[in-house]
């Protein structure tokens, strides 16, 4: 079995250290032998110690010369060559030159790699900006110059927030968590939109990725406008159709030529009602999407009274088939948009009724949860399979298609809820178990929560 030590930083095996050569011993032997020969020669001339002294002095001269050569080489390695004497000096000089050769090779390789990295990042269509711990620009590629108008070297070391002057971006940079990405107008022209994403890496450094998303935004707007316009256009003919069908219905009751059309007329009416709710939901969704970024929803909403209204409406829809329990903190209010918040409440509470068999219980709560406010609807209904949970808020996604259609569902309710929550920076959490029931919880952020007076929650039946 063999074992090779690994360097955790590079993940490469560490080179084995070279064994120390025994040239020290041969150098010492050589000095001693030279001293003996010098001593014998000196003794022969009548000055034994002088002979040894002369030998040592010669060694000193040689050592000093080699040291001076070494110094010259260290200062100017390209200009001076090191000699290749035998013994310990030869060994030292050889190792030094060998190390230098290796370092040169390594440097060449790194320089080539760096050049390759630079040319590949220059070819990237996305802008890349390397930021220091303090948000200063350390390096950027060509696309960053085009997208952000950065200049090299003038903008190096400047703080990025001083160049991209957009409050949301400043908040994003200061957040330190860098969740997702943000969109900001281009600092060069207002009609282009950039997506900015910070990726932390290495030693507190950060990489800012910049993408031009103007075209995607344009297509998104075109799609949204198309849905919204198409829904608008469909609304008028549908209203006319439904009006005539309503007028024809009493005619079909009595003894007249239309009476045999009673069933088809009813079916036509049901389908127009269904189409109307679809068109209305599509319009609601298009409006929510259009307002998702622009509009700030900041009205002070009396949520307890809104909730009572919603519960009364849904109770009528349930026709006494379900038991309702409400736990509402009476003075807990919200800064938001009334239409959007009503949409959230109505969709979730009416879904609870539609997906809970008669005799089931529906619990609605509106309470403080730490800094946040939590609106929750729990039912004892059919529940949702775990595999459907992640897709529930997709447009037209239905876990139970039959029941959804039979109860007049459009498949857009939870999509509307999701968008309305997003426009309030709120989160949706769905907990459910098949055959047991579901809980839909909405968490509204602390900045939107207002408690007029602290009062205990009241239980209502
Ligand atoms: P729909 O109009 O079909 O109800 P939604 O978007 O409101 O559309 O809901 C999407 C799907 O989620 C529904 O078709 C249904 O299968 C499931 N769902 C929603 N709420 C509940 C609930 N309270 N209990 C069980 N299933 C639900």
From TrEMBL:
EC annotation from Swiss-Prot or TrEMBL: 2.7.13.3
Signal peptide (residue range): none
Reactions this protein catalyses: ATP + protein L-histidine = ADP + protein N-phospho-L-histidine
Keywords carried by this UniProt record: ATP-binding, Cell membrane, Kinase, Membrane, Nucleotide-binding, Phosphate transport, Phosphoprotein, Transferase, Transmembrane, Transmembrane helix, Transport, Two-component regulatory system
Pfam family membership, one: HisKA
GO terms, biological process: cellular response to phosphate starvation; phosphate ion transport; regulation of DNA-templated transcription
Residues annotated as domain Histidine kinase: 229-448
Segments forming domain PAS: 113-168
Enzyme class: transferase
CDD domains from the UniProt entry: HisKA, PAS
Main location, first listed in the record: membrane
Record-linked PROSITE patterns: HIS_KIN, PAS
Record-linked InterPro entries: BphY/WalK/GraS-like, HATPase_C_sf, HATPase_dom, His_kinase_dom, HisK_dim/P_dom, HisK_dim/P_sf, PAS, PAS-like_dom_sf
Reported function: Member of the two-component regulatory system PhoR/PhoB involved in the phosphate regulon genes expression. PhoR may function as a membrane-associated protein kinase that phosphorylates PhoB in response to environmental signals.
The protein, known as: Phosphate regulon sensor protein PhoR
The species this protein was found in: Stenotrophobium rhamnosiphilum
């Amino acid at each position: 079995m063999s074992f090779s030590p690994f360097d955790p930083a590079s993940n490469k095996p560490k080179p084995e250290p070279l064994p120390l050569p025994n040239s020290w011993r041969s150098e010492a032997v050589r000095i001693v032998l030279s001293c003996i020969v010098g001593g014998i020669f000196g003794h022969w001339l009548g000055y034994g110690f002088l002979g040894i002294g002369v030998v040592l002095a010669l060694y000193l001269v040689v050592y000093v010369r080699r040291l001076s050569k070494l110094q010259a080489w260290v200062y100017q390695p390209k200009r001076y060559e090191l000699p290749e004497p035998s013994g310990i000096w030869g060994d030292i000089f050889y190792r030094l030159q060998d190390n230098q050769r290796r370092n040169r090779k390594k440097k060449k390789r790194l320089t080539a790699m760096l050049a390759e990295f630079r040319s590949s990042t220059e070819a990237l269509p996305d802008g890349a900006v390397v930021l220091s711990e303090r948000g200063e620009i350390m390096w950027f590629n060509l696309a960053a110059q085009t997208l952000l108008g950065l200049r090299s070297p003038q903008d190096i070391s400047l703080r990025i927030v001083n160049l991209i002057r957009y409050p949301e971006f400043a908040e994003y940079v200061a957040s330190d968590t860098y969740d997702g990405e943000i969109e900001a107008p281009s600092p060069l022209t207002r009609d282009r939109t950039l997506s900015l994403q910070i990726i932390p890496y290495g030693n507190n450094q950060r990489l800012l990725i910049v993408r031009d998303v103007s075209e995607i935004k344009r297509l998104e707007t075109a799609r949204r406008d198309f849905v919204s316009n198409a829904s608008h256009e469909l609304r008028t003919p549908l209203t006319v159709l439904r009006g005539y069908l309503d007028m024809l219905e009493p005619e079909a009751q009595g003894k007249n030529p239309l009476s045999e059309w009673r069933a088809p007329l009813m079916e036509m009416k049901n389908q127009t009602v269904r189409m109307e709710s679809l068109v209305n939901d599509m319009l609601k969704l298009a409006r929510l999407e259009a307002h998702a970024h622009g509009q700030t929803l900041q009205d002070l909403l009396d949520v307890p009274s809104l909730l009572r209204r919603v519960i009364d409406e849904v109770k009528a829809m349930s026709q006494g088939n379900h038991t309702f329990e409400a736990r509402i903190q009476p003075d807990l209010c919200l800064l938001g948009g009334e239409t959007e918040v009503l949409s959230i409440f109505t969709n979730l509470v009416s879904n609870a009724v539609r997906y809970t068999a008669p005799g089931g219980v529906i619990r609605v709560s509106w309470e403080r949860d730490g800094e946040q406010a939590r609106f929750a609807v729990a039912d004892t209904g059919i529940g949702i399979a775990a595999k459907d949970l992640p897709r529930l808020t997709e447009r037209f996604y239905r876990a139970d298609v039959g029941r959804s259609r039979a109860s007049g569902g459009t498949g857009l309710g939870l999509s509307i809820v999701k968008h309305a929550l997003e426009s309030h920076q709120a989160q949706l959490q769905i907990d459910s178990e098949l055959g047991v029931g579901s809980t839909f919880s909405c968490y509204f952020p602390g900045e939107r929560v207002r408690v007029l007076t602290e009062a205990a929650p009241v239980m209502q039946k």
